[in-house]
Design a protein that fits this description.
heterodimer, A: mainly alpha, MetI-like fold, 78% helix, B: mainly alpha, 12 helices
């Protein structure tokens, strides 16, 4: 039995989609206007598509450097979270013991702790050891990101037969070789999920970098955006250009990886 | 692998050390400090429950807590209703299904801070200019009152998170056996009956997941709160996460802020545990 094409739903859907995109449309068109134009109309297209707002926003945001900082922090943190969490989950899933279940529940329980509950001691302790910098930030991301990542890897590892490990061990492979050459490649689907969830979180995170990154020139995009917006509160045309610049890298990423992203987010939530 | 072997500890060491230094130690230290007059440098005297009793008498903190509860309840309902509606819409034989999913999900990829700034522009400038054109007085002065700030935040969160929740509902809806729906249709069930007696019970597990995610996201909200209203006017739209931040880093009363942070943790943990328990029981009954 084949259902007919649902015309009414199609129209409702498309109208809703336009409504959903409206905020981005408004941001985009107003980023090309002059201050005076925004005052007369916020909805119309700009009279002239001039890029002056972008040139100024680009300079004020120190855009290339800020973009690089965000990329550096996100890529490094996510690579380390993926590697260390897979290793940790592998140990926990292959050695069934009291230690392993205590550690596993420790990681799960840590997911319940809101960031604000550990924020103040975290910053004072790391401050005392001169670790309020990029390296400290990456280390913190590993600590906060490990819980969910281990949880996801642990679930996937339980579905991989141990006989594989045993066969490889008999063939003379050591622990690391078994993990790296046999198990880790088999974890690829869940690795994609873990990586995507952590990329979205770290790329967009504002609060932690705002507490940890104090050196000028090391700011990530959200951090720089916060200062930028504060400076230009009543200069909406510049603010909109800055916001558009900040969003472009995400839209490009979404364009190329949307299927993996939606699948990753849905798998991560359900498991 | 045995727990006695070197390799076991080597494999676990990086994550275990990071978790210990970043989460476990600060959490334990935090609980300890909340019973002292710690100021960030000197631990100070042991003061018992003083910080806690003060927190419960602190009007600003209690207001923030109440605002957070109201905001979370309204947002959770709105996000789930919209999210489920969108999921039903895109799974109902529409040709643009893929495109619609892509569009509805998009806001989730962008940080709450940036989304809050975009909506600040919409509420303040766009609402005002549209209000002028169509002559609606109620569109003026958004975010300048507690009420418009509240609805501004719920609109922003619904727009952002509905697509996320939609993706979760879709996963359950698509996993549903089609024969069940077709059989019920042949037997003459109406679309309302099909939804009530077949779709609804089968997507019940999705409610557990979605409620948990929306509740924990809205209750712990900080970025959107900071960028959209900044807690204003007069701290009346300030939520708990922001109130704790202000107590700690603007007023610099660390031990007191930490006591509030521990209260916050207890509430978040209790809500999460109760909710998972209740939902698990309901799923079995249905």
């Amino acid at each position: 039995m084949r259902r007919k094409w649902n015309f009414k739903m199609e129209i409702i859907g498309l109208v809703l989609a336009l409504l959903w995109l409206a905020p981005f449309y408004l941001m985009f068109v107003n980023s090309f206007k002059t201050k005076r134009e925004i005052f007369t109309s916020t909805i119309a297209l700009p009279g002239l598509w001039n890029f002056e707002n972008y040139i100024e926003a680009y300079e004020r945001l120190d855009f290339l450097r800020t973009l690089f900082n965000s990329l550096f922090i996100t890529v490094t943190s996510v690579l380390l979270i993926v590697l260390f969490s897979a290793m940790g989950a592998y140990a926990l899933s292959r050695a069934k013991s009291k230690f392993s279940s205590v550690f596993f529940y420790l990681f799960v329980a840590a997911m319940l702790i809101p960031f604000q509950s550990v924020m103040i001691p975290l910053v004072t302790v790391f401050g005392r050891f001169e670790m309020l910098n990029q390296a400290g930030l990456i280390f913190m991301y590993i600590g906060f990101g490990a819980s969910l990542s281990i949880f996801l890897y642990h679930g996937a590892l339980n579905n991989i037969s141990r006989s594989l490990d045993e066969a490889a061990t008999i063939d003379g492979a050591n622990r690391w070789q078994v993990f790296w050459h046999i198990i880790f490649p088999m974890l690829k689907p869940i690795t994609v999920t873990v990586a995507i969830l952590n990329i979205i979180w770290i790329w967009n995170d504002y609060l932690l970098p705002s507490l940890v990154i104090n050196q000028p020139g090391k700011e990530t995009i959200p951090l720089k955006m916060f200062f930028f917006f504060g400076e230009y509160t009543k200069q909406w045309h510049l603010a909109m250009a800055g916001l558009t610049l900040a969003i472009v890298p995400v839209i490009i990423f979404y364009f190329f990886a949307q299927r993996a992203i939606i699948k990753g987010v849905s798998d991560g939530a359900i498991k | 692998m045995r727990t006695k072997s070197y390799s076991y500890w080597l494999f676990l060491a990086p994550v275990l050390i990071a978790l210990t230094l970043v989460v476990v130690v600060p959490m334990l230290l935090g609980v300890y400090y909340s019973f002292t007059s710690w100021n960030g440098i000197v631990t100070g005297n042991f003061v018992g429950f003083e910080n806690y009793t003060n927190a419960f008498k602190d009007e600003r903190f209690m207001d923030a807590l109440w605002f957070t509860v109201k905001f979370s309840v309204v947002s959770v309902i709105m996000i789930n209703v919209i999210g489920l509606s969108l999921a039903l819409l895109v799974t109902s034989h529409v040709k643009s299904s893929k495109l619609l999913r892509t569009v509805f999900f998009m806001p989730n990829l962008i940080g709450g801070l940036i989304l809050g700034f975009i909506w600040q522009f919409i509420f303040i400038k766009v609402f005002a200019s549209v209000g002028q054109i169509i002559g609606m007085e109620s569109l003026q002065g958004w975010l300048s009152t507690t009420n418009t700030g509240f609805w501004g935040l719920t609109i922003l969160m619904s727009w952002q998170m509905a697509g996320y929740i939609m993706v979760i509902y879709i996963a359950y809806l698509e996993g549903m056996p089609k024969e069940l729906l077709e059989a019920s249709e042949i037997d003459g069930a109406s679309s309302t009956q099909r939804f009530r007696f077949i779709v609804f019970p089968l997507v019940a597990p999705a409610f557990t997941v979605s409620m948990f995610l929306t509740l924990s996201n809205t209750f712990k909200l900080y970025d959107q709160n900071l960028s959209l209203t900044g807690g204003g006017p007069y701290n009346s739209t300030e939520m708990v996460a922001m109130e704790i931040f202000q107590t700690a880093f603007t007023q610099n009363v660390f031990a007191y802020a930490q006591a509030k942070a521990v209260i916050f943790f207890v509430i978040v943990a209790l809500v999460a545990l109760v909710q998972v328990y209740v939902n698990k029981r309901r799923e079995v009954e249905m």
